[in-house]
Amino acid sequence: MEFPAAADAFAAHLTHVRRLSPATVRAYRTDLRDLGAVVGERELGGVDLETLRDWLWRATQRGDARSTLARRAAAARSFFGWALDEGLIAHDPSLRLITPKRGRPLPAVASEDAMTALLDRMRLAAMEGDAAALRDHAMLELLYASGIRVSELCGLDIDDVDLERRTARVLGKGSKERVVPFGAPAAAAVGAYLTRGRPATAACAQAESPALFLGSRGARIGPRTVYAVVAAALSPVVGADTIGPHALRHTAATHLLDGGADLRAVQEILGHASLGTTQIYTHVSSERLTAAYRLAHPRA
Fold first, then answer.
1. Dist CA 12 CA 148 (whole Å)
2. Catalytic residue ranges
3. Which of 54, 125, 185, 283 is deepest in the core (most CB within 10 A)?
4. Residues with Cβ < 8 Å from 114, sequence gap 6 or more?
5. Could you report the per-residue pLDDT of 244-268, keeping only the tens digit for each?
6. CB 86 within 8 A of CB 45
7. Against a cut of 0.85, is the pTM above it?
8. Which CATH number fits domain 112-296: 1.10.443.10, 3.40.50.300, 3.30.70.330, 3.30.70.270?
9. Percent of the chain's residues with pLDDT above 90
């Protein structure tokens, strides 16, 4: 079978057997079409490892991002693995195709002074008693204080938060439960919201919800609403390209390490399964330290 016909058959397999989304199938088609420009009308069995390496090399010369190269290598492996299973080829040429490592950009974080100023402004706005302002202040204080994910914040019930002990019980990835600490400012903000903000919003609901944070109609708040609130608050602080709730998680982790927290303790707080995931924040702290050294030391 010639390569173009095999690529069409593979796309049909993805659509009708694996039932992948149209967008995913289009992505596979695009990658294989790019490979087909190198392969030409060659028989599928005539494609070897050198052909695949040449294909990725050409993409590198075009300036394709590492993420694009990694995705295309993955598409080639899936395609040739399928072709081997179907008996269309005797050997899989992609087995030794090395996936280019993805670049891992360092997360942007806000400075401690910027976060203090931001949360002070939100605290003053909440003092006027508006239910939404009280809720938004409590959410940002809790996100920054605990480093929890936005999904974990949305999943919190009132009973999950212990204001006296200043801890929250969250359900993380893989349904893993953990208890995270938070500080006095977050406890005060959540307490004020529960006392003066939440009751007004809860009155709008047809049925009582156990959720800690409620939307405008009295139901459990959704991730999109949290994202919008955090984006509006953080956009002038950390830049338009990093304004999601995860920016607060990055900031919390970095500030913990800057303050001398143990890396494994930060891993537990964030709920990372691997210490390697947490270690990216040590690089952020190191860069901040280097920048401060260069500004301050006379022989830097």
1. 41
2. 149, 173, 246, 249, 272, 281
3. 185
4. 237, 238
5. 667 788 888 888 877 877 777 877 8
6. no
7. no
8. 1.10.443.10
9. 41
